[in-house]
Each structure stands twice: as structure tokens, then as C-alpha cells.
């Protein structure tokens, strides 16, 4: 028996860590949402055989906290994909002790993902009519696709899932509903080019997908209205990767009979005044908005590109105290998503919402796509930059929705580019 065999035997005797008893529950609760057949991850972890041959890799990436991907350090959010120190230790001891299977009869059943959709069988599936060809080279593309879907009565959407046909080239996707008939008129057979807005107003957003994101679900008492005569329009941001690819993305909607009892509103913080010199290590972008009414904060959605390093979103309360709404100490462009609070955050009238993003455009930033660094400005390409923090709120008094809406409109008109429209993410 070689050295590694002796070590494995020693650790096995000392730890007794097995896949069936110790490891499978960790993987099934935190990993297989992506690492499963048909998932977005490059390999599956649903069986002992899948996991055992990658035991050392699992120990390494979890010890370094590279996996599972979870960016915020605070506060606590629902559905957090953060392993505890004990869980990380379990994976490390399992790998070191030889990755024993244990008793297969004790292995819990892995989660079931019907039809590959994370939330089970959808009430409606809509797909792009034809595959879209993404060229090997060139600028990023923003393309809108009217999705063939049956007409029907008005319905309330409780959840949305988007499955990219080719995650290698899909940077993100947003779903809108068009009640004007414009999208089909603009369609050239393979969608139509669009950046920012999807080309019609009002642009009624339903949700979106970004790498690593879980399906979008509304609060139970605040579903989104899907108009019966609306056309579903999918806006996809494509990023060429050096070889020609195709994409055929699909969308799943889940309905509810419950009508909303409150309104979710988006407070956008951000700026398009971004001009980062080559070599700058601490370039900051800020924005703010004072709440005219008392609200509950439901979720928060940050966005930037590659050279953003750190993100803060916080609330300055009327008494001067500060509450952190999100802190991401190490931003990673590949793992952005919307974060939902485990418990809504109550903020009184007069609270000032603030954001501060810090960018590192130096050669020391390993995520900098430019070598050597070059000047980076605001723009739609992945190698440009953006700064956006969307705070999803609901007025505590439903009658205050109009006042908040008017204040947000005033911010947009005064901002001269200060607030980034959601469709430009």
C-alpha cells in the first residue's frame, strides 16, 4: 500500500466520513441545483460516482470558498448558497480519507427537477422560434425575440425561470411583455437588435436570468400581472467567445390565482458617468435616493462588469444610523443575481438609500480583461463598465405607491444619466 493508501486508511478510521451519510446531504442542498443532468454546471454531482472522482476538487474549491458561488458577506439573505465551516471540513476530510461511499441504502434521494426546470413543471413554456447565430468575433449583441405563446386571459405570474440554450455566450436575459404589438412588427425572423429598452414603451419587465441565478419568484402576495393580449419578448445579451455558436433559449412561467395585495417597486441607484483611467485601483461610483414614504425592502440586485472590486448598498436612517443592505467584498461578474432578504427590511420615510461601488483597473486585478490595463468607460460591452443597484421595495401603506412613483420619476429626470435603466444591465 502506497503513502496515499496509508493516509486514506488512517483518515477513514479517524473520521468515518462517507458520501451516503455526510457528503450527499451537503451536495443535494447546495450544489445539485446547478450540478445535475441538464443543469448549467459542466458536470453532475447527483451520484456517488459523480462526486467521488471529484472529491479533491470539491475539497479545494469549497475550502477556497470559490464554490458554491455566493458573493454577499452581509446581511443574511434567503436561499444563501454558503457552506458552513463544518460542511467545508466534512468535504475536506472525505477527500483526504479516500472518498468512501458508505452504505448506499442510507444515501438520501437527490432533489427531483421535473423536465429540467428547477421549480417543477411550468404552467407555460415559451421558446425562441429559431436558433440565433452568435458570431465568433465582434461586439456584444443585444437581441430581442418575440416568443410564440398562446393568447389567454390576464394571469398572475408567481415565478419565472429562463434556460439559456447556450450559457457560454448568453451573458444575461430579461423577459418583457409587449402590449403594443411593436415587437412582432420589428421582428426580422431572427428577432431584432435592441439595447437598453426592448424597443417599446411601456416596457413591462417580468424578471431575468444571470449566471448562477436561481429562478425568480415574487412574494406570495405580490405576483406580476401578465396581460392576456401581451407578447412575451426575450432580450438576450450575447458575448462572442472566439468561435461561432448558436443559442435557443426558453422561458418557463408559473401562475397563481391569488391577486396581489401590494405592489413591488424598483428603486434604481447607479450611474453611467464612468471613466476609469488605466491603472486606477480605487475608482468609486456613488448614487443616492431619499425615500419619501415608509417601505419594506424585499430584494436587491447589484450589477457591474469585470473590474468592479467591491460593492456597498446601505440605508442611512433619519436618526443618522446606517444599515447595510448588501456588501460584496469580492465582486465576480460570472456569479451575479438578485438577492432576496430572509425577512423584509423596514425603512422609514426619510431614509437615504446609498450605493458605493469601487473599481480596480490595475494590473493587480486578476479579473481585469485588459492586459495591460486600458481606460474603461460606461458602455454595453462586457469589457466596458456599468454601475447599478436595484432595490426592490413595497410601500407599507399601499396608498403611498403613487408618491413613491412620482419621486422616482423625478430622480430619473434630474439624474442626467445617474440612474441606469434596468433593461441596460
How are the SSEs ordered, and which strands pair?
Elements: H1 3-15, H2 19-30, H3 48-52, H4 55-63, H5 85-96, E1 124-127, E2 132-134, E3 141-147, E4 155-163, E5 170-178, H6 182-186, E6 192-193, E7 204-209, E8 216-217, E9 224-226, E10 231-238, E11 245-247, E12 250-256, E13 265-270, E14 275-276, E15 283-290, E16 295-303, E17 308-316, E18 322-328, E19 339-347, E20 352-359, E21 376-377, E22 388-395, H7 401-415
Antiparallel strand pairs: 1-12, 2-11, 3-6, 3-10, 4-8, 4-9, 4-12, 5-7, 5-10, 13-22, 14-21, 15-20, 16-19, 16-22, 17-18, 17-20
What does this structure look like?
It is a single chain. Strands 1, 4, 8, 9 and 12 form a five-stranded antiparallel sheet that branches. Strands 6-3-10-5-7 form a five-stranded antiparallel sheet. It is built from seven helices and 22 strands. It is an alpha+beta fold. Helix 2 (19-30) crosses helix 5 and helix 4 (55-63) runs antiparallel to helix 5 (85-96). The chain is globular. The chain has three domains: 3-112, no CATH class; 117-256, Copper type II, ascorbate-dependent monooxygenase, N-terminal domain (Jelly Rolls, Sandwich), CATH 2.60.120; 265-424, Jelly Rolls (Sandwich). Mean pLDDT is 88; it is low at 1-14 and 417-425. The longest helix is centred in the last third of the chain and has 15 residues, at 401-415. A hairpin with a 5-residue loop joins strand 17 and strand 18 (322-328).
